[in-house]
Design a protein that fits this description.
By secondary structure, the protein is of the alpha/beta class. It has 13 helices and six strands. Strand 5 (about 300-305) and strand 6 form a beta hairpin. The longest helix has about 45 residues, at about 165-210.
């Protein structure tokens, strides 16, 4: 429970789920369960240290790139159930296979049923908290609830009337299946880290060959320019935002907000354009920076750095008052 709480400040809502389960158990058994009550109390005290984080997040709610939208709300449960879909399907098959005719699994205790109810409903509480306080929400924030549901599914399996050896193997299988999703994400994260490191090295190589500044137009890459191989910001490398002010994106809003708290090398297109008459853009031709450059009459030419295999666009102010792509 403590681990889930500290996985994200929305994880504090899991305390409510555990508290609801504890209350159900106390009502069912007509006595207060000492250890669960102490655990919930300790988690509540520990979670108090996360309040400043949530409060600070709420100060920038107008600048987040993860605004609270109806689309995000509708995507909660598909995202929530995706990591546990495979284990749940296997468990359902085992329940059906092990219950021919009148032989059925034992009914679940009310504590388990209430736990399923609380865990399943907790993402809605997360969404409401995001809507009213933090101003930022992504369905993947509910992965903690998905992990809890997966753990409860394993508890469900333990109540299935199977042979002990079959049950033991099934529990191991279900646990391994439940870990496949986070394991794959960790592997993907390692690959991403490798890619980011290589990309930064390639940026340094390109900078050594050219004097024109480099603009990263892909919002998924702008963090790379903040720290080079020596942990210092990359020189002559910028992220340009607000290229199309009439259609500001969530990224434009987010960068404007991040500049209030982080020393990013980011400038609005107008400020950057006023100083730099020539630059290179790493990104595709549909990026706002390239589109705005063409609109302003710049000459935009496609180039490739042979040594690094990085494609980019060379942008130069117009000589004859017209644009070419």
């Amino acid at each position: 429970m403590l681990a889930s709480v500290y996985s994200h400040y929305y994880g504090c809502l899991q305390i409510a789920a555990f508290a609801g389960c504890t209350a159900t158990s106390a009502w069912q058994r007509r006595q207060i369960p000492t250890i669960p009550v102490l655990a919930v109390g300790a988690a509540t005290i520990a979670a108090a240290s996360l309040w400043p984080l949530a409060h600070a997040a709420s100060q920038y709610r107008g600048n987040f790139w993860t605004p609270v939208t109806t689309t995000a709300a509708l995507a909660i449960y598909p995202t929530l159930l995706a990591p546990v879909a495979l284990p749940l399907l296997v468990l359902s098959a085992l329940v059906i296979w092990s219950s021919p005719g009148p032989d059925r699994p034992r009914p679940l205790p009310r504590e388990i049923l209430s736990a399923l109810l609380w865990m399943a409903g907790m993402p809605v509480g997360m969404f409401l908290l995001a809507k009213s306080v933090t101003g930022a929400f992504l369905p993947r924030y509910t992965v903690g609830a998905a992990a809890a549901l997966c753990a409860l599914a394993i508890v469900l399996l333990s109540s299935v009337p199977l042979d002990k050896s079959v049950r033991r193997r099934s529990l191991i299988l279900a646990s391994l299946l439940a870990l496949l999703i986070p394991m794959s994400r960790q592997i993907s994260g390692l690959r991403t880290t490798r890619f980011r490191g290589d990309f930064v090295e390639h940026l340094v190589q390109i900078q050594e060959k050219q004097s024109a500044p480099i603009v990263l137009s892909d919002d998924g890459l702008f963090v790379e320019m903040t720290a080079g191989p020596d942990s210092r910001p990359l020189p002559n490398c910028y992220f340009v935002y607000d290229a199309l002010p009439e259609t500001r994106t969530n990224v434009d809003l987010a960068v404007a907000g991040l500049l209030k708290v982080l020393p990013l090398q980011a400038q609005t297109f107008d400020d950057f354009w006023a100083v730099h008459r020539e630059f290179n853009v790493i990104g595709d031709s549909s990026s706002p920076v390239v589109q705005r450059s063409v609109r302003e009459g710049a000459t935009v030419t496609y180039r490739r750095d042979v040594a690094t295999n990085i494609d980019y666009w060379h942008v130069m102010l117009p000589a004859f008052g017209h644009s070419r792509l």
